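Weekly modeling sync, notes
Attendees: S.R. (lead), two postdocs, one rotation student

Agenda item 3: backlog of single-chain predictions. S.R. asked that every request posted to the team notebook include the full sequence so nobody has to chase files. The rotation student volunteered to paste the first one in as an example of the format we agreed on. Action items at the bottom.

Example entry:
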Amino acid sequence: MIRRSLTISLAVFALSALASSQTLEPPKAGKPEIFKEADLRPGMRGVAWTVFSGTRPEPVPVEILGIEKNMWGPRQDVILARMDGKAIRTNVAGGMSGSPVYIDGKLVGAVALRISVFSPDAICGITPIELMLQVNEFDKSRPADASNPDRPRTAASTLAAPMPSLDPMLANVLSASGSPALSLTPIETPLAFAGFSDRALASFAPLFNRLGMVAVAAGGASSTIREARPAPGWQNSLLPGDAVTLALVSGDMSVTGMCTVTYNDGSHVLACGHSFFNLGPADIPMAKGEVITTLASSYQPNKIGNATEVVGALRQDRHSAILGTLGATAGVVPVNVKIRAFDESSHLQSERDLRFSVFVHQKWTPYLMMLTLFNSIESLNEFAEESTYRLHGQIELDGQPNLDISTMQAPGEMPVPAPMLLATWWGERFNRLYLNPIDSPRIKSVNATIDLLPDRRSAAIDTAWISSSEAPAGATLTGKVFLRPYRGERVARDFAVTLPAGLAKGKYQILLSDADTLNRVQNAASFADPNMGISQTISLLNQERSNNRLYVSLVSPSPTLFYGDKSLPALPPSVMNVMQTGRSASRHLPSSAESVSEQGSIPFDSVVNGSYALQIQVK
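Predicted structure, as returned to the notebook:
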């Protein structure tokens, strides 16, 4: 009888709690009263607000268990609580980060951590709102543990071993950072990849996973946020408990991260209860979100949803929260990629245009440019392992000359697919711009055309001969160079070299080479110069030779000095010593023991590799 009465009492309590929660209205914008951490006691009951499906937040009963001291850091506590209601089924899911918790109508903080994905109890950690409100008071300095592609974040936000910034193939073989089974860890942020192939996700997702993101394939409505301008009605958006998304990439393909709004004072919002990438000052389009469903899983519960329309910009990405400004516009780089597929007869088979935007950051923009280019190729039906890719395009900059880019990429014998090699080359162009130690580039637009050619097109320089190994200055020498293409007959091309009038007597070389041979020395010199500004970097990139040409050069034994984007060949030793001595205190001037003077080039519709040198004597 007693047991029956207890059961009835519990049922009545549950029904009354349910009825009470159904009468609650989601929180509104405005500065709420703060429930101070010092006033919390175990057993106190409150309510959290989060979106399980759609766009309307739902109440979730919460019971305070206690306070875990110094969990976030020195004098940075975490409030331990148990979630009830729907959270019993879903557990503490990815995307719930930032869900506001109230007691007696006063804001306690944000759901931000979970203790174990396998626990039958929905135990969460709450970041105190007092700690989150500090974000707007920080200076504009960038935190030392910001998470970039070359610096993954561990669960405790400590520095990890450096990773190459443009090497997702290496990221695949690195295991994710582990965490003790019973420690509170930040709730993973679902990172939705819309319009990406399985192969692109498999190649790039491991790095995002190491940064505390759960990379998931998803649909996306982010084609509407390509320009990152706030949509009408932004003033009434992102209320506490709403889903908020950050658009790293938006348009025909998108990469968006989702969490929950904790606080909205009418012009600024705080969300997540932990960092996104911990970038410090940031500039990322901030959009509303809709949740399709909340996946209930004992291993990886997550919200699955879409970005809808931009309503502001993320301005601060800090340890305890992210802060955004409603109505603000974040800077993005508009990208247009045209993909053309040709058949064996060089007839155009298909063509499509992709348009998207990438958020601006010195480390992340190059990596995302690499990701999106790789995906642009991988998602084509015309893709084939033996395809060759011909790329040309232009990067338009504000206040600087445009950067013209051109290259070809053919499959090789390495276990790295050609699209990944091309994407790495592409990303490295942006890496050199954004990591410039003097200036930051202001990119207005990026336009690229990629031609897919149906076979492997590469040719290696085999041998060569010249009409005479002795000649006076001013004479013209003729010769023939032979190249061996992949699975084809040897190819011969004629060339001519006119020796400069007044050339000193002595031994020289006629160098027949690919572009890399000539670019290598100049690039190495530029990397050794820490004082090279963005204008000089653009000039050097525009001077790079294209790898679908064979270059004919005259090599002399006199040294070359490199000064910024300028090459000073055949300098007398006395002049070189004066220049080196005069600049040694503030700037190192790299040099080469030889001088290379380009005399001409021969175009090919394939990638040219290798080099061959012919010795000549000037009489």
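Discussion: group reviewed the output briefly. Residues 23-135 form a domain with the Thrombin, subunit H fold (CATH 2.40.10.10).
Action items: rotation student to repeat for the remaining queue; S.R. to check formatting next week.
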